[in-house]
Write the structure tokens for this entry.
Amino acid sequence: MVRPEVEELRPKLKEILYDCAVEIRATKAALYLFDGASRFELVTDFGFRTGGVRQAADENDALIDRCMKGRTPFFVNGLTSEPRFSERLYDAGTDRMLAAPMYFRGQLVGVIDSRDKAAKLPFDQNDIPKIQRIADRILALFTNKNVFGQRFITLSDADDQVTVTVTSPSLNGTAKAAAETQNAPTIAQTVPLPPMPATPPERTAPHPAVKTPPPAPLPREASTSMASLIMEAHTAVSRFASPTAESIGEGELVAAREVLRKMLTINGVVVVSLSAFGHMGGIQEIVSKSTLTGETLNFLQSKLSGWLAKRGEPAGSVRTNAQTPLGLLTPPIASSDIQKVFTAPVIVGNLKGMYLTIGFNEAPDRAAHETLAANLDELQLVVEASLTRTALQRVRTRAAEKLLEPDFTKFPVLKRHTDLVVSRVDQFLRVLGLLPAVAETVRLTAIVHDVGMRVLDYERLYRKRGLSDEELNILHEHVFVGAAMVEPLLGPEVARGVLAHHERMDGRGYPNELRGEEIPLAARIVQICDAYETMISPESYQPVDTPEVALATIYRGAGTQFDGDLAKKFVEMMRSAPAPVTTR
């Protein structure tokens, strides 16, 4: 049964759902919302034939299960493309679906199920951000409402104390927490909180390029091998596809700090802390409007410790990192300056033991408290988003590594060369300071840049000196093969990097004679590191160079074979801080 607080929003929900027809051109759509107990109920829909839409679904339903495991919109084109959705599509007389999960404070609270794009067009990647925006507009309607089995932080009227109550949504129930104002005790300096009861390849070097004709089709056995290898890698990494985070890392802390700093702008807030017990050994991030005295720090710790003890929740030691992002223009904050302290759990997926503590220099008004609720929600969302990115990076790295197995172990020279190129790329990336997503693409390209060798005649050629033009052409085909193997698992950007890592800035490279910035950045970076490791390797089919000669060759090739700016930065890096000697 639809709850009253949702019922009153039904007209607005239907209006927003119709945006699926306007913005996505879907001919049908349904909206399901969590009932606060165990089911997702149909709230509104349009376009479905009589009986073609389900009235409710639980976590065993294929659509709900998929949305609980994957937190981004997805599409299915065709009854047989994903068999688990075939029945749902068939029942409604449809064959294309675009769905969007809706997450609220880290929990799935709703699903948009849209079908059959107009003109019988398939759904595509351009539709993903559109349906996400529609889902966001629906969630915005519930920002200040007590729905889905949870309450936003609100001020209570109990006695003369201020109590904060947060109930977070869960398919299995609710979690409640309250923070109380106490008289500030005088406590000696402490660090930990008291524990609570626990619940080798074709080598690119700056020698004249060999003109390579378009590659002949791969032999049937090679094509079959490549397909089987891709399937093998898919199978091997599928169990990592929905990783469950057990701890937060530095990436999550960076994201969280930004929200903590924002909370300092709430009227009356003088200090904010995020405590995570058991994560990375126990961590605590504190931001404050000025420095904290030892007594103040102890006071805040005692508040959190007492709050946890009253609820029988486990704690432990923490390593504290305190910052004063607004500067040091005011005197240190004493414990007597903090009049109200509130604590609430930070709920992100399956993570446990995270708490937000806020200290006010005066009793907050309702507006301040509502802002605090919104900030807590934002904190949970940014930590969850960061965890998702980190988990995805692990999956992609594992997929890249799996593509190298097991054949690379048969070719130790190729394995050593790949490892050395990846290490050199890691060193170069620290100097370049690229955005994390760009750096990840570069590193994945380095891992798989020679993966195409595994289905070519490498077993016969990898130790041979003085390769003929015909044999070089065979090895040149590794860029085509590698790109084809990589694209299904790691995406088009990494595939383009693999395909182009033997292109030259002057257009004399292969396979497509690209010039300048037509060559992807990942390929330009990997090319330099690949060339350097090739030139200094005693296992290369080309004469070995000393590191200094190799660097001089790269410098001379700046702007012709190599990206001029990158080549100069690489040479500068190697000459100013050479990497430790690596056993080959």
User: Anything to note?
Assistant: The radius of gyration is 29 Å. Residues 406-576 form a domain with the Hypothetical protein af1432 fold (CATH 1.10.3210.10).
